[in-house]
Amino acid sequence: MSLPEPSDSTAALVTGASSGIGTEIARELASRGHNLVLVARRHERLSALARELASEHGVRAEPVTCDLAKPASRGRLPGRLEQLGLTVEVLVNNAGFATGGPFYASDPERELQQVRLNVEAVVALCSAFIPPMVERHRGAVLNLASTAGMQPMPYSAGYAAAKAYVLSFSEALHYELAGEGVTVTALAPGPVATEFWEIAGWEVSGESMEQAVPGPAWVRAEDVAHAGVEGLEHGSRVVVPGLPMRAAMLASRYIPNAIKLPSIAAALRRR
Ligand SMILES: NC(=O)c1ccc[n+]([C@@H]2O[C@H](COP(=O)([O-])OP(=O)(O)OC[C@H]3O[C@@H](n4cnc5c(N)ncnc54)[C@H](OP(=O)(O)O)[C@@H]3O)[C@@H](O)[C@H]2O)c1
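# NAP complex -> structure
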């Protein structure tokens, strides 16, 4: 029960491959000989990455444009895979974004969009691709959670709740599928410097994340990708990349929410 060996007729499907952690996970899997199906909305970026992976690693890389927040769009993915003649043996649910600020002032449609992409799409792709993996007794699933999902977060309430769902769902599936030849790993990074922060627009104590969060807490996207793929190889349940973040999350388990929440609220409240 670990990362299946690559073959000509199989592929790893990576969502959110047009940027950040998803791009690096695709590179990491290609370097190990896996064909790639690269999914996101920005076709140009996916095509450029597909050309790079094919020429650098000699793998087959297929860009597939899809808005994963839309049920009709993501519902076409299994058929597209069939057309390509590729079987998904590795599924990476990475696409995601975060809202921030007080929930009462946030855009209701954006909040729902976050649930559709960060939660609904993860469940839908797991429903589509895990049953055939169980049938073949072979497969690996990497779901992008976050350290944000390890406690409620005032001023990022929807994002933390979405990632808590992904974490809980993935940990439970890890055990359900342990005897079925399919490994499920939740990858839960702390802060990673990607386009994510620009889109989220989070602030800590009135400063941007880059200014406010100390250097050792940050992990590079390529290191997150490496840790995630290694997690699949080892059949890990949860991977928190980087020692400082791992230690912080371990310590945080012993601090009650009644103490944690006021300090998170004070840090993330906009001035
Ligand atoms: N950066 C961090 O600090 C951090 C920490 C913990 C967890 N994470 C998680 O890691 C994952 C990747 O984040 P990242 O940091 O790499 O962010 P990123 O650079 O902003 O990448 C997000 C990816 O999601 C795709 N995406 C967004 N909306 C989509 C949609 N509706 N349909 C299909 N694809 C969509 C984007 O592609 P298109 O725009 O081309 O569609 C992009 O490829 C997310 O789940 C995030 O929550 C990030």
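# post-check
Residues 10-268 form a domain with the Rossmann fold fold (CATH 3.40.50.720).
The pocket of NAP is lined by residues 15-16, 18-22, 40-42, 66-69, 94-97, 117, 144, 146, 189, 191-192, 194-196, 199 (CB under 6 Å).
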